[in-house]
Amino acid sequence: MTLSAADIALAALKVAASPTPCTGAVAQTVLVVEDHEFQRHALVRIIRSLGVPHVQEAADGAQALEILARSHGCIDIVVTDLDMPGIDGMALMRQIGAHAPDAGILVLSAGERDLLTAVEWLAREQLIHLVAVLEKPVSRQALATALCRPKVVRRRLPAVATPAVSLDDISAALAADQFEAFLQPKIRLIDGQLCGAEALARWRHPTLGWIAPTAFIDVIERSALIGDFSLAMLESVAWAMRWLDDSGLPGRIALNASPAWLDQPDMAERLSQTMARLELPVNRLTIEVTESVASSNLTATLENLARLRMRGFLLSVDDFGTGFSSLQRLVSSPFSEIKLDRSFISGVVRDTPRWYVVESTIALANKLGLKT
Length: 372
Description:
The protein contains 15 helices and 12 strands.
């Protein structure tokens, strides 16, 4: 049997993310929250038989919160049902995430898989330490695997203040050549080889040090400086590309193109002229377009994309699957690759619906001749 590149990539994803046998210490203190008395007592007996020395129980969410308040952070894992009267499992998760963030949460439910998927998504969005989501009736082995994990302390990082910058500051920074491209490597999943990099903008401020793009991108995109900024980034990319070549690290570099820049009628022409002046081959640069942002001037955007593709540039649709009309945009624009959004990749092995999205998108990309 011959395997396609998509088959190999999907198999590699499965192997890379497959769970390994648990070697961590079993949880020391577990709180079981279940309104059904028989099921609660059965869970307590199983958990104790797994070697957990301290097991407490609560008949509902309110009682669980009282126990957590008295424990002063000593509960390792809360095992909770979803469907309970009063404070249900989802409300309990939210309360635990806010008041006892170091406690892991193990959710048990007889609900459909799509409900459990939604619960996992909610936990991620609320930064809750979700140990696992298991379907009822839960097996002893599944419980043992979930409870045999080291306690994770979710330390809060100090908030980093974003410096306030003005358009004049940015204009001066452009004149002083203070914007640089940091490279994030791209690795081929099939063989683990470096195949290129993505250029990420950073501001080398003379007094504040390195400034992340969250402090300046929005200001630039709302101004007429977006074209000048993008071409300044291209200058830095040119230097990086030569460095890669000298180091024996071949591959393309991807540069993000703001929708505000793609709206400008002369965008493709200015980019092509700058590439020629820098003596950079166009097939070494991939232009990434964020799919989740709707263009205010779709005609100009499509014209620029078509002109760039005609001149040999490679085009990538970024954050694929998160915007409006993904398929319509894909078939009407001359893209050469797509980048699946992180929200689909995260947890893909445990989440069947996400796996179907990844699998079908790779198959679609292959049919359209696109890299993924």
